[in-house]
């Protein structure tokens, strides 16, 4: 499992990973996107 975590760390430090993180942060700051994510999480929780 340590290999997977190491790969995630390497990706997060890469330029592509930084761009992805910026996109995620911007999407999380958007109220409409946040509501969309909350609905999705709610649906996933009820399926269990």
Descriptive overview:
By secondary structure, the chain is mainly α. The chain is 92% helix and 0% strand. It has 3 helices and no strands. The protein is flat. The mean pLDDT is 90.
Question: Roughly how many Å is the radius of gyration?
Answer: 14 Å
Order of helices and strands: HHH
Q: How many helices?
A: 3
Head-to-tail CA distance between termini: 25 Å
Percent in helix: over 70%
Q: Tell me, what's the shape?
A: flat
Q: How does the helix and strand content classify structurally?
A: mainly alpha
Could you tell me the number of beta strands?
0
Mean pLDDT: 90
Oligomer state equals single chain
Biggest sheet, in brief? none
What proportion strand? under 5%
Q: Which residue ranges are poorly predicted, with pLDDT under 50 across at least 5 consecutive positions?
A: none
Task: Name a few traits of the molecule.
mainly alpha; 92% helix; 48 residues; 0% strand; 3 helices
Describe, in short, the structure shown.
With 48 residues, the chain is mainly alpha-helical.
Helix-strand blueprint:
Layout: H1 2-13, H2 15-29, H3 31-47
Helix pairs in contact: 1-2
